[in-house]
Write a structure and sequence with these properties.
Blueprint: H1 15-33, E1 35-36, E2 42-43, H2 45-56, H3 58-73, H4 86-90, H5 94-114, H6 118-147, H7 153-160, H8 162-181
Antiparallel strand pairs: 1-2
Helix pairs in contact: 1-2, 1-3, 2-3, 2-8, 3-5, 5-6, 6-7, 6-8
Length: 187
């Protein structure tokens, strides 16, 4: 069999994927530094998550989110207010950051099944945000109960979710507009 007759072997991780992943992790760090301190810091992280997923696609976008979280876990100050460490991820707000991975996985699954149509992207990012909120709030309640006192679901939602719903929806819409202009994912 001639080498030109063999089917092309699928390449593993490409250099371009590594570069995009690294740049996206940097974008997340920069967006997390844009912060208004509250119980759960108001940052541009969710904007970065939405942009990264829409621009890079589910696979590379989720990988970039994981790299960002790993960088912060090992001590690189990429989290809000230039913080870092595993303690941040295991703290009261860590569940929301870990929830970004869930947002990426929902986006990846949805767009793999239904394609990258604008409505599919918007709905999958919105579902991912809801899952991120749910996971983060459950995490917050668990950690807060261990470090302070038990807190009810409505109190936790009023501290950690309700103030962020409208800004996060606005960030989602803005991210979709920006990502249409800066589309990287050709798949």
């Amino acid at each position: 069999m001639n080498t030109s007759d063999r089917p092309a072997r699928k390449a593993g991780i490409k250099t371009v994927d590594l570069v995009y992943t690294a740049l996206a992790a940097v974008l997340m760090a920069i967006c997390s530094w844009i912060s208004i301190p509250t119980t759960v810091p108001f940052t541009m992280q969710t904007f970065a998550v939405f942009c990264i997923l829409s621009m890079l696609g589910g696979k590379r976008g989720t990988a970039a989110i994981a790299v960002y979280l790993l960088l912060g876990a090992v001590g690189v100050p990429v989290f809000a207010e230039f913080t870092s460490g595993i303690g941040i991820l295991l703290g009261t707000t860590g569940g929301y950051m870990v929830g970004f991975i869930l947002t990426g996985l929902i986006y990846w699954l949805s767009t793999s099944i239904f394609g990258k149509k604008p409505l599919v992207e918007a709905v999958s990012l919105l579902l991912g945000l809801v899952l991120c909120y749910a996971f983060g709030t459950a995490w917050f309640m668990l950690v807060y109960a261990r470090t302070a006192e038990p807190v009810g679901i409505l109190t936790a939602l009023s501290w950690c979710v309700f103030p962020f719903v409208i800004p996060d929806i606005a960030k989602l819409a803005l991210a979709l507009v920006v990502s249409r202009r800066v589309r990287i994912d050709k798949k």
